[in-house]
Fold:
Amino acid sequence: MRALQSRWCSKLTTTYSVFVAVNERGEASPAIRVGHDREQYRQFLEQLAAGSEIALEASGHYYWMVDDMEAAGHHPRLAHPLEAKKRMGKTSKKTDKVDANGLGILLRNGTLPEVWIPPAELRDQRESLRLRMFLVQQRTRLKNRIQGTLARYNVQIAGVSDLFGVEGRLRLGKRLGELPEHTRQSVEVELATLDFLEVQLGDIEKRLEALMKVTPEADLLKTLPYVGRILSMVMTLEIGKVERFPSAAHLASYAGLVPRVHSSGGHTRLGQICGDVNQYLKWAFIEAGNLVVLHQKHLAGQHVVRLYQRIKRKKNHQKAVVAVARHLAEAAYWILKKQEVYRDPQPQPKIPVKARAAHSMGGARVSAEPALVPAGQSAATAASLAAIGAEIQPGAGGKRCA
Structure:
């Protein structure tokens, strides 16, 4: 069979894909509908010319398609759906063929808004960590539900710091008889489910421990303030290759820690942080920021605490936590980029206004990189290096959301 053209685009649905080829003149071939039966899908890919470029929209089920395309020797190009629609513009018709043709035009023109495709191994490793996060959420919901049930019937378990610890569970078991029959049975089922979740979480964490032994980047990220083994693993697996980010600000934007900018007529206003981001990575940095705030007494005088207190005075607690999270995200970029451990940035001495103006006219610039220490290097040696630690202002520079 004759090899088909080498530039294709695919419009995905849950049960089939619509393929359209676009030539150099922008002319589209007749649409080809391919079912999502794996054998049928692979046979179609084998008919394409070797090394064909195939554009497809990012969706919740693109993993297997990308794997089959790469196995067939093709080059999948994953497109950001919302951005692709903006660039295709408004049309009078909305069909699968029209959408596929629009993707093909963007691919041909070199304007396809591409999304990074994580390697198959990284996609697989992420699943264990994301499953753990899901199960922890379910565990929290169960605990809240049990405590709500006890509150409705005024069953108070006094004298224990953790209701679900060993002593708390013993006392709770003795008080379950005070609940009505069906309510008591419901709580017993919830407690049994909670025990099952604990077993599953223990097994997942053992697998993650084994994974961490071959992930040195996670050890470097653990040098960030109050970033432990779980948060460091989330950051490592969700960031992937740090080289794909042009700058630290781009990583912060990817994590949803950069505010929207509304600027017109000389007036600039910062809006809410972006929503179309990596939610797992955003959670990790925000969680680390909250831990810093929670333990700020133990970090007195450190940069993250000064940053939180300064922004909180000017804005509020929520924006201050996001500012800390953004600092941690940008610090994570440099840690992974330079393979160096985190070192607390030192406050810069205040420069008089006149001296600052002269310094600015001279063209000198102060780096916004967080201070780092190469692995195995002493603080004394690092102190002799050029000072590179400057406070990172929230909302300053970097990629912006439209």
Q: What stands out?
A: The longest helix spans residues 120-152.
